[in-house]
Amino acid sequence: MKLLILAANGQIARIVEERILTEDKFKDIDLVLLLRRASRLQSLKDRYPDRVTLVDGDINNKQVVVDAAKGCDMIFSAVVDHDDAGNNRPTKNIIAAAEANKISRVIETSLLGIYDEVPGKFGK
């Protein structure tokens, strides 16, 4: 299976990526990681060259998201859609990418830390 992760350098995304790449039960999942300045995750690509593809781009650009989703089975969005233009471009682009690539599974996250899953960030 191939999973596209949007906003791949965010805190939630990094937790998901680490688990997928290190836990045996996810060994059949390859990652396509979309983020601005993809070089920030080059060390991940270096550690898992056969399982990680880096895509440099902005999720506010519809064609970038559609192209990144080609060949993927699922999309995971690790970004809060707080589009400055007020028209929800990231969400619309994710929907367009899923439709264009016939992807029926999309996971959306928007809250961080409500279950203390990020140590040292909230509360304890």
TrEMBL record:
<dbReference type="InterPro" id="IPR016040">
    <property type="entry name" value="NAD(P)-bd_dom"/>
</dbReference>
<dbReference type="Pfam" id="PF13460">
    <property type="entry name" value="NAD_binding_10"/>
</dbReference>
<feature type="domain" description="NAD(P)-binding">
    <location>
        <begin position="8"/>
        <end position="123"/>
    </location>
</feature>
<dbReference type="InterPro" id="IPR036291">
    <property type="entry name" value="NAD(P)-bd_dom_sf"/>
</dbReference>
<protein>
    <submittedName>
        <fullName>NAD(P)-dependent oxidoreductase</fullName>
    </submittedName>
</protein>
